[in-house]
């Protein structure tokens, strides 16, 4: 299977979710609450959406690690991809965050879980750059091609190119930075709202890169290994069509398959030919998260992928694997779990 699509994810169940006032100034995708909707009602609706996403991913055969957050001072904690990324070879990165009230979203218990259940060799922590006003907000600021080892980044104060180059040196990626703006000339705040990279397909709003030469370089780099590039429009970006992520799931019979996770709003914005191009290699899993999208992020922002090797299977998993093999000796899931143990 491809290194691009993780088979496990981390989600944060933010019980006090609200659109973050500290990020509204530079996040053009953020919206106000509907008139008359209370903070409590907003939080309850968001919780239901978070649970729906977790259920949908589990239903697609993706391993889901959910962490609860009851802290009312962390309204954006539902978006862990901004402070955490994991990488093959046991590498983990922790990132510097622009908004001061987001910096305590970083959680030791998440890192401890990763170390206990997966093989973690090195944690590289860039958060010490925050006092110097230097930020790189994880896989929000970067869209990573784990196969070709390219880090795509739209320049902004949330994606400093110096720390981008430092990350690429530490983790073995080629930096590809560019300017990206909307039709009003407003810079894109996070790269992952304008595009995502899968194993065999990428969605990207290339029209939002004003430099034509750089635009063609990005297009060529995305497609160099035969990947299909589905170009999306600025209008579709505003519907969060670019904020998707490819994952690796398992069917009920244990067969591995790729899924493209996105919001239902994003899915509705896609044309039939774009859907067909995605479904050549992925099945689309979409969930309605209109409350969470008020905060200016969508499904990709909610998911921190786990690109790490698992440690030995637990005793319960081994028992389940043996039972599955007894019932069906050809079950791939049973063989894989048993092999891990």
Automatic annotation (TrEMBL):
Cite the GO molecular-function annotations of the record.
hydrolase activity
Locate the coiled-coil region(s) and give their ranges. Answer: none
Is this entry keyworded Transmembrane helix? no
Q: Is Hydrolase among the key words of this record?
A: yes
Alphabetized, the UniProt keywords read: Hydrolase
What protein name does the entry list?
Answer: Citrulline utilization hydrolase CtlX
Provide the species name: Nocardioides taihuensis
What gene name is given for the protein in this entry? ctlX
């Amino acid at each position: 299977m491809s290194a691009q699509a993780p088979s496990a994810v981390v989600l944060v169940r933010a019980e006090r979710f609200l659109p973050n006032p500290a990020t509204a100034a530079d996040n053009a995708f953020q919206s106000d609450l509907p008139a008359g909707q209370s903070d409590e009602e907003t939080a309850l609706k968001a919780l239901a959406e978070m649970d729906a996403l977790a259920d949908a991913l589990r239903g697609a055969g993706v391993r889901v690690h959910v962490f609860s957050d009851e802290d009312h001072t962390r309204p954006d904690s539902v978006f862990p991809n901004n402070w955490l990324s994991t990488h093959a070879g046991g590498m983990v990165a922790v990132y510097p965050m622009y908004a001061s009230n987001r910096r305590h979203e970083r959680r030791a218990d998440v890192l401890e879980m990763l170390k206990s259940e997966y093989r973690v060799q090195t944690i590289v922590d860039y958060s010490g750059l925050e006092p110097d006003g230097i930020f790189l907000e994880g896989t929000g600021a970067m869209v990573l091609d784990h196969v070709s080892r390219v880090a795509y980044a739209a320049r902004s104060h949330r994606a400093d190119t110096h720390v981008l180059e430092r990350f690429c040196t530490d983790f073995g990626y080629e930096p590809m930075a560019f300017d990206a703006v909307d039709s009003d000339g407003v810079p894109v705040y996070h790269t992952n709202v304008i595009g995502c990279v899968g194993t065999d397909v990428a969605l990207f709003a290339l029209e939002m890169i004003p430099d034509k030469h750089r635009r063609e370089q990005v297009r060529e780099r995305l497609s160099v290994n035969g990947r299909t590039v589905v170009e999306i429009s600025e209008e579709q970006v505003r519907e969060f069509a670019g904020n998707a992520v490819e994952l690796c799931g398992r069917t009920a019979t244990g067969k591995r398959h790729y899924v493209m996770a996105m919001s239902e709003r994003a899915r509705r914005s896609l044309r039939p030919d774009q859907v067909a191009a995605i479904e050549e290699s992925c099945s689309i899993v979409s969930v309605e998260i209109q409350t969470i999208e008020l905060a200016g992020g969508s499904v990709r922002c909610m998911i921190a992928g786990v690109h790490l090797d698992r440690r030995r299977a637990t005793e319960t998993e081994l028992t389940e694997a043996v039972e599955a093999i007894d019932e069906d000796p050809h079950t791939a899931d049973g063989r894989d779990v048993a092999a891990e143990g």
